[in-house]
Amino acid sequence: MSKTIIDVRTHAEFAGGHVAGSINIPLQEITAHIDEIKAMSQPIIFCCASGNRSGQATQYFQSLGVDCENGGSWLDVNYQVSQN
User: Fold this and answer.
1) Which architecture, in CATH terms, is 4-77?
2) What dihedral do alpha carbons 80, 22, 59, 27 form, nearest 10°?
3) Rounded distance between C-alpha atoms, residue 18 and residue 59, angstroms
4) What's the predicted TM-score (pTM) here?
């Protein structure tokens, strides 16, 4: 099963390091990408620096019926991905 990883940090934070293959859509821009995100392979894993912003994105998209989860810190998600 393929998963989509969306990093909701700013473009500058993302440029400083991110999970390989992840997509950067900053939290403040996420509502402009609803249809695009709904069309992506699910489940979707949101990540950020600490899990706060990705938690907000997860709650929002779960309310829209999207199969998604809060991966927390991108470093944690990166570790999990590297173990698979």
Assistant:
1) 3-Layer(aba) Sandwich (3.40)
2) 130
3) 22
4) 0.95
